[in-house]
Amino acid sequence: MWSLGALLGSPLVEGRMIAFREFTKTFGSRTAVDSLSLEVGAGEVLALLGPNGSGKTTSIKAAAGLIRPSQGAVLVGQPPRPSLDAAARGVCAFLPQRVSFPEQLTGREVVAFYGALRGEDAGHVDLALAQASLNGASRRPVGTYSGGMVQRLGLAVALASSAPIVLLDEPTAALDPDGLSAFYTLVEQHRQRGQTVLFSSHQLGDVERLADRVAIIVAGRLVATFTARELAERLTDRGLMRVTVNGMPDAALASLRRLAPDARLEGVDLVVPGPARLRPAVLDAVRASGIEILGLTAEEGRLDALYRELVGGQS
């Protein structure tokens, strides 16, 4: 176990913008995050993926300087600084999962206010509102906004930021379709600018679409890191194909098991677990056996099953 002085004195690798160094946070007797060590590179989009209550929000807030580590450290920026330092907060833009703004202000006034606090160019305001699909409501009081519009206003605040690090906590949790489109635009724009984005999610679609790399956290512990492609392949390999057939003789099933050893019959369905690359050969073999195919579905691997597998692999 490193001392806190060693943790703070160990510099970030060049090009790294966020580093969790054995970060641990406890609340009373409960450990929310346990010895998290993870780095995020400059210009990288990294997703924290995990079930509810796994420690994602605690980790994001620690990077934003809103939570003091119980042990370890969180460093941000170049040169690296502890995230609690005022100077460190100046290089981070943070969007919490739930946002609220003064209801008397207009949407434009809210974005302009936060932009002015950060010293942003006033010209960013209208562009951010338009990208968040709020340009038509920007001069209305926030008190007249729907819940989805308030979330989009939070995205507009984040869009207007030129901070080198952007921290987003479950940003799609309460977004309507327009808000989702705005969120995808937000992340892509920050990526193009070379900004570092760290966001949390339990939605696989967000991760597959946006993340360069995925860190999976379960019960407060980092259990695996993957590229987005590696995660997709891992889930695909743990999926299954379900083929509804008009009868399956034992000999035909035995022959299929030479291609897919775990193939089995469930009523009228031939169930074939395993990698997607095996499925065309299995279907060809079924047709070659003269068996009529009545239906076909494919199911990808479930995240909850992957979480259990990863935790089991570390026990």
Offer a few descriptive terms.
14 strands, 36% helix, Rossmann fold, 6-stranded mixed sheet, Alpha-Beta Plaits, 315 residues, alpha/beta, 12 helices, 4-stranded antiparallel sheet, elongated
Going by CATH, what is the homologous superfamily of the largest domain? P-loop containing nucleotide triphosphate hydrolases
Order of helices and strands: HEEEHEEHEHHHEHEHEEHEHEEHEH
Number of strands: 14
Beta fraction:
25-35%
Structural class: alpha/beta
Fraction in helix: 25-40%
Give unreliable regions as ranges: 1-13
Number of domains: 2
Taking strands numbered 1, 2, ... along the chain, how are they ordered across the largest sheet?
6-7-8-3-9-10
Give the termini separation: 20 Å
- CATH architecture of the largest domain, by name, is 3-Layer(aba) Sandwich
Major sheet: size, sense and barrel closure?
A: 6 strands, mixed
CATH topology heading of the largest domain:
Rossmann fold
Q: CATH top level of the largest domain?
A: Alpha Beta
The geometry reads as elongated
Q: Taking all residues together, what is the mean pLDDT?
A: 85
The radius of gyration is: 24 Å
- Number of H/I helices: 12
